[in-house]
């Protein structure tokens, strides 16, 4: 998901970082960190090192800025292998981070243990067969910038600052999904470090089970250092950020609703929207905005006409290069890394009624709570991601994945609920609101026959247990069997934080 710039400008106050000043670390983590420091003096950062804070600080949500015992920054798969052996030897807890965008505390951050930060594995290599091998530590705008020099692109993240690793291991919603399926469906090879430190190249031929499991299974199988992806030629796109005046909110909701019907704009597999409906309880403000995208040099794509017909307060939609369009998401206000963030998700069948149902269920709940009105810097948003049939079919045609969507169940919409706010003291209030609001949407959708039982892990909160819905319940047992085969000691489910554990 991504949000228009204006959302960021609503912040009035910024929270101070909550740093534990006198954290005591467990003996296991302390020993592992000493051993890492010994083997990798320039790649290990402990509290007494200058760059320690800098090394762990870079989490997109402030809820995830946790001080680890040390940060280890490998540059190669061999480094990761050695580090994993050390971590296992001392039975230290660890967390793995690529871009640090997942707003789930402990998913890619750790309070007492080793943070393995992969940001220095950052090469893009073009292969003779037309694929690109991409380091997990890159951010998508860097990948696009590099590939565009050759007139190429990959189906990666829409928001330029998001990391390569988490997005590809969780699935991946790209602007090109209607043509290629999940971003993960474009991966042809993984370089992974397994428990025990073995470095393995995983392809469909070499390890079909693990190849499948890595498409959606997040951090349950090992530490992926590099991904090889299919590329495609890409020159011009039409795109930009569009913000509407609050008085246009209903027109905007209707445009999203009609786009999100199977015969609507979503049937154009060259187009994409990233609509954000923002609600500010303290002021009563409701506002909409979206990124508009269409592949090619058509400056007035008909699939987006319902959006461009609404007078916008701000729009820079135009024909330009893909990196230039993606750079719209890199504004300093939005990328301030200054707020606390929480994501939940639900899915509904694709039709206008679903969009209206979400708006009409969610908005009154956001505004009726006296508690939320007092939460400093609080904005809550609804984001719609229409998922056309062509996407689901492309995913299957590419060989499938753990998410395993069923074309017979029809097109649907991934709905993201995300909030941002300033202070830790309000974390519980926001979490409760998300739980209650999500439940209300699901209940209302079930009543109308509009619920679609699928939760996209990269937009979900761990309490939602997204894996249990994959493949209508058939994926999870297989995912567990494969995890036991490649990690018999359960390193990735015991020593790694259990946030997304399959067990
Ligand atoms: C502003 C914003 C915009 C977004 N836009 C999109 C979008 O357009 N499309 C989309 O699909 N999603 C989007 N997301 C969701 C995003 O895909 C997930 O948050 C994703 O997990 C982030 O990847 P990362 O590498 O930055 O995450 P991190 O926070 O570093 O990692 C996320 C999880 O993946 C694991 N992990 C990361 N790298 C590895 C690795 N190499 N090996 C093993 N485990 C690993 C971590 O341990 C952690 O559990 C967005 C999120 C935000 C906050
Ligand atoms: C941590 O990150 C925030 C946001 O990017 C920044 O303002 C702050 O200065 C950083 N702190 C340190 C110690 O690097
Ligand atoms: C969406 O919800 C808001 C707030 O309740 C309401 O004012 C608006 O009319 C709704 N819009 C549509 C199109 O349902
Ligand atoms: C635009 O909106 C109308 C309803 O006002 C709808 O019938 C039409 O399908 C929409 N077009 C697209 C491309 O979404
Ligand atoms: C948006 O544009 C309208 C005119 O189309 C104007 O009345 C309104 O003040 C503008 N709103 C903002 C927030 O700039
Ligand atoms: C996109 O932003 C990056 C980082 O600021 C910059 O290096 C790059 O030149 C920009 N690319 C385009 C096409 O604007």
UniProtKB/TrEMBL annotation:
The residues the entry assigns to the signal sequence are 1-22
Q: Does the keyword Metal-binding apply?
A: no
**FAD-binding PCMH-type domain: which residues?**
64-234
Protein's UniProt keywords contain Oxidoreductase: yes
Q: Which keywords, in A-to-Z order, does the entry hold?
A: FAD, Flavoprotein, Oxidoreductase, Signal
User: InterPro entries in the record, alphabetically?
Assistant: FAD-bd_PCMH, FAD-bd_PCMH-like_sf, FAD-bd_PCMH_sub2, FAD-linked_Oxidoreductase, Oxid_FAD_bind_N
One of the record's GO molecular function terms: FAD binding
Recorded superkingdom:
Eukaryota
Pfam families from the xrefs?
FAD_binding_4
The family annotation for this protein states: Belongs to the oxygen-dependent FAD-linked oxidoreductase family.
* Protein name, as recorded: FAD binding domain protein
């Amino acid at each position: 998901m991504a949000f228009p710039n204006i959302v960021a400008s609503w912040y009035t106050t910024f929270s101070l970082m909550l740093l534990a000043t006198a954290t005591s670390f467990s003996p296991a983590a302390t020993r592992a960190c000493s051993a890492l420091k010994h083997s990798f003096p320039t790649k290990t950062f402990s509290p007494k090192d200058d760059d320690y804070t800098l090394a762990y600080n870079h989490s997109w949500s402030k809820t995830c800025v946790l001080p680890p015992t040390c940060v280890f920054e490998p540059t190669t798969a061999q480094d990761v292998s050695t580090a994993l052996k050390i971590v296992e030897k001392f039975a230290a807890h660890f967390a793995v981070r690529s871009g640090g965008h997942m707003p789930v505390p402990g998913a890619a951050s750790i309070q007492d243990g080793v943070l393995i930060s992969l940001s220095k594995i950052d090469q893009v290599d073009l292969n003779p067969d037309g694929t690109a091998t991409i380091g997990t530590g890159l951010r998508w705008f860097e990948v696009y910038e590099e590939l565009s020099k050759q007139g190429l692109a990959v189906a990666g993240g829409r928001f330029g600052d998001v990391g390569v690793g988490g997005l590809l291991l969780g699935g991946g919603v790209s602007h090109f999904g209607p043509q290629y399926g999940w971003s993960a469906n474009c991966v042809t090879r993984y370089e992974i470090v397994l428990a025990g430190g073995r470095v393995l190249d995983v392809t469909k031929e070499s390890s079909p089970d693990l190849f499948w499991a890595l498409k959606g299974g997040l951090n349950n199988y090992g530490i992926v250092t590099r991904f090889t992806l299919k590329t495609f030629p890409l020159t011009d796109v039409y795109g930009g950020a569009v913000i509407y005046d609050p008085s246009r909110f209903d027109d905007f909701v209707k445009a999203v609703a009609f786009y999100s019907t199977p015969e609507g704009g979503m049937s154009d597999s060259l187009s994409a929207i990233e609509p954000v409906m923002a609600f500010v309880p303290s002021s009563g403000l409701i506002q909409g905005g979206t990124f508009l995208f269409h592949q090619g040099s058509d400056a007035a794509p008909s699939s987006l006409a319902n959006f461009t017909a609404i007078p916008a307060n701000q729009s820079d939609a135009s024909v330009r290069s893909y990196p230039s369009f993606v750079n719209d998401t890199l504004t300093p206000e939005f990328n301030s890394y200054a707020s606390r963030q929480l994501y939940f998700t639900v899915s509904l069948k694709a039709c206008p009624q679903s969009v209206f149902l979400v708006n009409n269920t969610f908005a009154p709940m956001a505004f009726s709570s006296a508690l939320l009105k007092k939460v400093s810097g609080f904005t809550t948003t609804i984001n719609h991601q229409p998922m056309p049939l062509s996407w689901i079919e492309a995913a299957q045609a590419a060989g499938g994945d753990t998410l395993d969507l069923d074309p017979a169940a029809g097109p649907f919409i991934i709905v993201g609920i995300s909030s941002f706010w300033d202070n830790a003291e309000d974390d519980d209030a926001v979490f409760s609101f998300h739980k209650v609001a999500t439940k209300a949407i699901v209940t209302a959708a079930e009543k109308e026959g509009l619920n679609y039982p699928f939760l996209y892990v990269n937009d979900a909160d761990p309490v939602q247990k997204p894996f249990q819905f994959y493949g209508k319940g058939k994926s999870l047992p297989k995912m567990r069997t494969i995890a036991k085969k490649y990690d018999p000691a359960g390193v990735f489910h015991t020593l790694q934080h259990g946030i997304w554990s399959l067990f």
